[in-house]
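Quick one: structure for this chain?
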Amino acid sequence: MGSTSEFGRRDLIKKAAALGLVTVPAMSALSACATSGGDDRKVEKGKKTDSNPFGVNEKAGLEVVIFDGGFGTQYAKDAAKDYEKKYGAVKLKATQDIQPLLQPRMVGGTPPDLVDNSGAKAMDAATLIAKGQIADLTPLLDAPSYDDPDKKVRDILVPGTIEMGQYGDDKCYRLNYAFTTYGVWYSKKTLEDNGWEYPKTWDEMLALCAKAKKKGIAGWTYAGKYPYYIAFALYPFIAKIGGSDVIKAIDNLEPNAWKHDAVLKAFEAYYELEAKGYILKGTPGLDHIQSQTQWTKGKALFIPNGSWVENEAKATTPKDFEVTMAPPSSLDSSDKMPFETIWAKADEPFIVPKQAKNVEGGLEMLRVMLSKKAAQNFAELVSSLTCVQGATDGMDLPPGLASSSQALKDAGDNVVNPRIRDWYQTLDKEKIGGILAEMMAGRMKPKEAVSAIQKAADETAKDDSIKKYKHS
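Got it. Here's what it folds into:
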């Protein structure tokens, strides 16, 4: 373990990088071509049949790496057992260090066969795709679904799932297994016990936070060490104020997109939470687990998060807590989109590395995971929807999942899906996240934050080494 001074030095470098004061060669190793491996690693293919559409070698083993985060790993272990009923043994490794563990293997041409590329240390998918290191999943989409051979896999997926795996062409490189809703989470019991209602406007939000403060409860907390969590509520808030085109302009790296009036209004609103002392003391130093624990302990009313939080925070959540999700509060009656507007998308991206030994096995494992049995098991285990249509119909859902499902229904067509997070991961996590952290800690004013983020976005737009994407 390094010295305290070394950790302090690293933190300073990270903060400086987030503010654009220094340049960090993030993901530079991925820009190199694979230096070893290749076709000589591939296992011999099996015979294609109706029940084995990819021609998986039935004796070949399969290596899978799963992100050990909010969804845990049991769902993958259960699916692996079903896979093993027909094919070789599955070696499954769980980790939170996806990039540190797998980046050298991707570059060296010795990757696993299937990867859950998720979490704070996920690999930059856009870079991997640009370097030709991820297999096209179109064969999976065109294969017969596991439960009904008359339906292709693409026909059983929730709309928008395939698009989330596309990067500028018709090919699909990622299968986003979970269907995630993002918003503001709270304890229904806490609000009801105090006679409070969820605030639908920002004035109502500030008024409720003031009442909570008098009772010794903070209005908000968040993952200060991973400040991009703030965006889970902030991006749909911006869309409500200025319309979905503002988010599209941000995604497209358009000049002055971040200087839209809706962005400044949203920043000023969230900055007011800090300025009025409505954020839990010490929040900037908390990680996602610590902030969620403070929330489940009743130290703060609200936390911006995704629908995985019900499962991830389960160990510290009181039985009568009643985890509930709501859309971010509206600003006021001038908003362009209704209160019900939320951010929702297919998430938890799985990839099959192109240089994997058993690409066919990786595709088949995904096909197994897209069975109704596996999808329902996922929902039961982790309180989240999957990308499989109708998988949870008729199921008795836990409160958080039920509320997020209802929020999705209430939103109708008013669903936004910012792509900047997966198109430009370094910009989103290191630059935008770092700047938001400074603002939410009171160390940077909203106008300064807007200018700093626009500068970072402009630098990305001008960097010819970064592939660019556009909304159609």
